[in-house]
Design brief:
This protein is 33% helix and 21% strand. By secondary structure, it is of the alpha/beta class. It has two domains: 119 residues, 3-Layer(aba) Sandwich (Rossmann fold); 105 residues, Rossmann fold.
């Protein structure tokens, strides 16, 4: 049996691994079918905070993959959990979509534009200058700056789109304050995922398409890593990094065939 087949739990990135935008990647259906048939514990972990687990479940269903909401972990959920542990019942000014707002509300946070404890930035297509100006002045007024993830860009059907760090950068530059980012490679989100899976790190593998988030997140959490070449990182890019994944595959569809 291949070492990957012996793993009990799989943490799998989504963008660039299962799909690009609304386009399903080759082998994704077969991989999810294999996870279910083999009785594996699995969690689809995305650094994006734009969608809720329910919305992600519906998105995959529209591509022909049936995965219930409890199998999704997002940086929005991890961010809300972290902030609730730091300041229970706190408040936040949010630049982001429902996938960030809903978890914060569920954690008892108040969303406000007046004297918030935190300014929280996630991905959103409604990002605009007025939000930047508001956020800068709130941070200068004492609000702590939080980003849901440190991704600069992410894969979409048309190529590459700006991600959370790129959206947070203007606020950091104008305010002179650095944001704290929750998503991969921060070990916080990995520990949160392991708790959800109720599995040990030795039993788990993380699958992703980015050396700078997915693979380093696994290495720093002492979880075996699989790099798939279906997203951001190309094979020629691997040599640029001072670390390597445990496995390199063309896509997740290769795993059932190992």
């Amino acid at each position: 049996m291949h070492p990957l087949h012996q793993k009990r739990a799989f943490i799998c990135d989504m963008d660039g691994v299962l799909y690009h935008g609304s386009r399903l990647l080759a082998g994704a259906k077969e991989f999810v079918r294999w996870l279910k048939q083999e009785g594996k514990q699995y969690l689809f972990l995305t650094n994006s905070s734009s969608r809720t687990p329910e919305e992600l479940s519906r998105k995959l269903a529209g591509m022909g993959i049936d995965v219930s909401p409890e199998h999704f972990m997002t940086s929005g959920i991890a961010t809300a959990s972290f902030l609730a542990s730091q300041k229970p019942g706190g408040s936040a000014y949010v630049i982001g979509d429902n996938g960030l707002r809903q978890p914060l509300l569920e954690q008892g946070f108040r969303l406000t534009e007046e004297d918030p404890d935190y300014v929280v930035v996630g991905e959103t297509v409604t990002y605009n200058y007025a939000q930047i100006e508001k956020a800068v002045n709130l941070v200068l007024g004492g609000a702590k700056l939080i980003g849901t993830n440190p991704d600069i860009s992410g894969p979409v059907e048309a190529g590459i789109a700006p991600a959370c760090r790129a959206l947070t950068a203007p606020i950091e530059i104008a305010s002179g304050r650095q944001a704290y980012f929750i998503g991969k490679p921060n070990p916080l989100i990995m520990r949160h995922s392991l708790k959800r899976l109720a599995c040990k790190r030795e039993e788990t593998v993380i699958i992703g398409d980015r050396m700078d988030t997915d693979i380093i997140a696994g290495i720093e959490s002492e979880i075996d890593t699989v790099l798939v070449l279906s997203g951001i990182t190309r094979e020629k890019d691997i040599a640029k990094f001072p670390y390597r994944p445990d496995y390199i595959l063309s896509g997740v569809g290769d795993i059932p065939l190992l």
